[in-house]
Amino acid sequence: MIFKNFEYFLAIVEEGGLSKAAKRLYITQPSLSKYLKRLEMNLGVELFDHSSSPLKLTHIGERYYTYVMQYISLDIQLQKEFSEIQNNERGKIRLGLALWRGSCLLPDILPSFTSKYPKIEVNITEGKSNFLVSELINEKLDFAIMNLPPEMDYEKLTYETLKQEEILLAGNIDHPLIKQLDNNYGNSNQYPFIDLAQLEDELFIITKPGQNLTTAIMHLFSKQQIYPSNKLETANLTTAINLVSAGMGFTFIPEGGVKGKQLPDNIAVYSLDDPVLFWELAVVYKRNTSITNVSRLFIETLQAYYKK
User: What PROSITE patterns does the database record attribute to this sequence (predicted)?
Assistant: First the structure.
């Protein structure tokens, strides 16, 4: 319990009496005496041994003194944190992203971000797109990095595009079909082209229903009238990639998974050169909510990363 003008109490303690404390505070001794009586009456205890000269704290007074000093320390710390928050030096970010994207994206940007802003806490939530959307709507996330869900509720959510991302086919370089390819680049300037019809009888390792990537892949199969009979489903794209690396079939990965050195050395990626396999990668957040300054710093870091 801290009462107004606690600095008067501290002056009495430090000066050892009312007279010196009053001079230090530029108030009259009677006024300071009234303050002390009122303070002890409000607390219901004696803070000083009034029979001693200089005044000495009672045991209860020592406890109150410790409490006041802790209060002052906390107040200074709070003011410091307020200043840091206003200057974008401190805060918390609640970030959501897909099950696999964190392993591709975060090693490239999080170390430098936390080094630059060491007092900004980043809390990471990973999950399927429908889970992330639910967390955004329930305000459990500040924003999510995700490919736009095909049925996103634009009345509740809004977004900022990071890039147009291509979905690529991944295969093992030792697969017989891969070895036969002539690395024709088709309309792509970056990835060699492969005709999906050549692979209809091969094993496809795809993500499970409910994930954005699965929806895009099934749309592609339907559009090209390809009906693979040999499929293996997994919720984790990293598992799919590692199975392909081990010699099992083919899988599909967003272009973001190719950036850096995240893929095994024996994985080759190919463009299917189909508009269906281009989707927006975006920062998604709840409509009509303000993005905090520290969240905006992270979003700007993402934007710079994807412009490279």
Answer: HTH_LYSR
